[in-house]
Amino acid sequence: MSDVKPAAPVKSITDFLNPLDERESLVTLQNAYAQRSVFYFKTDASEKTVAASIDSFVDKKVILKLETPDIPVTIDVDVNIKFNIGTEVYFAKTPIQRHLGLPCFDLGAKIIQLKRRKEPRYLIPKKWIHTAGLVSSQPNMKPIPCSVVDISLSGMRLEIKDLTQIECKRDEVIKIQFQVHRRAEVTCNAVVRFYMNRLHHGTLLGLELVFSKDMQKERVASIVEDIISFQNGQKF
Fold first, then answer.
1. Each residue of 95-114: b (16+ CB within 10 Å) or e?
2. Which of 112, 132, 201, 213 is deepest in the core (most CB within 10 A)?
3. Using the 8-state DSSP alphabet, how is residue 163 labeled?
4. What does the alpha-carbon distance between residue 104 and residue 58 come to, in Å, rounded to a whole number?
5. Which residues contact residue 18 at a Cβ distance below 8 angstroms, ignoring those fewer than 6 apart?
6. What's the CA gap between 103 and 67, in Å, rounded?
7. How many CA atoms lie within 13 A of 139 on its CB side?
8. What DSSP string runs through 65-130?
9. pLDDT tens, 41-70?
10. Chain-centre distance of CA 90, in angstroms?
């Protein structure tokens, strides 16, 4: 009798596509605006890829600022838009329109996230008070202040405040501390899985949390539970 195990089914890209609801889509677009994400798409008016960023939100429209304004864009025809927020990849299928002569798309456009992680990340609610910092290995040095972008049971994204840029390496182990909303502070190590120094916008860090004590893991789980409860109780 053969002991060869059957091969696991190969997943297609559609297995990882996660449609966001109306509120999640709105929050995603707001984050893309805050982080100056670049939106890429093509229309049949040109073979060149159009690159744009969100200029503003007006009359339920997402107004776009084209990096190369002279590239022609077909209006009122669906296009596939791709953009990133940090390491997260998103797509939108929507027609490009015109508003007061400017290219735009509808604020209610459906946003889809390419999600390869087993554990979902949760955005920190806007009105929640939180603190975070990178702890230096040198004594008597204050932590470098950060803000928490999002968090999961095993990872998080931090944005360095004050436009400070830092030098670090992928897979480097650093020490962090953070406190979110009403939960107790967490101090633990973290592995740098992603970092990006952005000109005039500071540094974005994607971290895998390393827990040496059960208490650290329990506190992070409590933060995630708080966010889920908040989202479920939120009236849209």
1. ebeeeeeebbbebeeebbbe
2. 132
3. T
4. 10
5. 112, 113, 114, 115
6. 12
7. 0
8. EESSTTS---SSSEEEEEEEETTEEEEEEEE-EEETTEEEEETT--EEEE---SS--EEPPTT--E
9. 999 999 999 999 999 999 999 999 999 999
10. 9
Amino acid symbol at 146: C
How far apart CA 72 and CA 171 sit, in angstroms, is 43
Separation CA 45–CA 33 (nearest Å): 26
The letter for the amino acid at 153 is L
Tokens of 65: 């600022």
Question: Rounded to an integer, what distance in angstroms lies between the CA atom of residue 151 and that of residue 130?
Answer: 12
pTM greater than 0.70: no
How many whole angstroms separate alpha carbon 168 and alpha carbon 165?
Answer: 10
For strand 97-99 and strand 61-66, is the pairing parallel, antiparallel, or unpaired?
unpaired
Give me the DSSP letters along 9-59: PPPPGGGGEEE--HHHHHHHHHHHHHTTPPEEE--TT-SSPEEEEEEEEET
Q: How far apart are CA 216 and CA 19, in angstroms?
A: 32
